[in-house]
Give the backbone structure.
Amino acid sequence: MNPHRPSERAVGGTQTKVWSWPEDAPPHSGTDTVAREEPLEIRVRGQSVAVTMRTPGQDEELAAGFLYTEGLIRNRDDVTGISFCRQGEATDHTNTLNVFLNAAVEFDLERVTRHFYASSSCGLCGKASIDSIHQLFPPIQSDTRISPSTLLALPDRLRAAQPIFDATGGLHAAGLFDLDGKPICVREDVGRHNAVDKVVGAGFLGNTLPYADRILLVSGRASFEIMQKALAARIPILAALSAPSSLAVEAAIDSGQTLIGFLRDHSFKVYSHPTRVSS
């Protein structure tokens, strides 16, 4: 085994050898915990649908959330089971999940492939992307309100629920909160989208969707894909510790979602539908 490769796999983190160079001191060797990143292949009825790089943990939620936010499953009854592959061609059975669907659910792999290609191609962008999403998930109409003081308290509460980040410093987080700022579900992952999928998947598998009176906080920036996933879960308010993209703002405006950015250092900016933020 290569002594320089990470080893001793644990939940969310892996021990690896490291050389440190402190200022005004000689270098020394030791160990450090780094965030685990491994591929997860998602199969539906035995057919490969997607491969994503993720932090192992809550993989069933990740698969369910991904399929739900892509509009491939709609109801809890659509899924009869999710399990790791134990045989066949998968070389690492802990990284291959098979999602079993109700026999009545139509699943056209060719259509799914076309959908993913179109969603990622340069030919589908801007307003066309938003219109395409609205065919699956209509805009939100909601009278939900949250106070500025509650919003300002959320970053510390999200940070307090990130044990793997404490050990590695290398994970994103997505947190679902009620309107009083109580954490409902917090998930960590090396991928921002994966963390959101895990939160949505938890609601799907637990039959607690839609999240109509909840707020989602993400640790990084807000992208169009994050807004899409929040829209699928019917989340009216999304906040990010960092900046939103231009398409995320456009999507939030057209989808009836309140988008908050730069929620840090005791301040924030509201980019769409500001009336939901009120004392």
Observations:
- Residues 1-10, 117-124 have pLDDT under 50 and may be disordered.
- The radius of gyration is 20 Å.
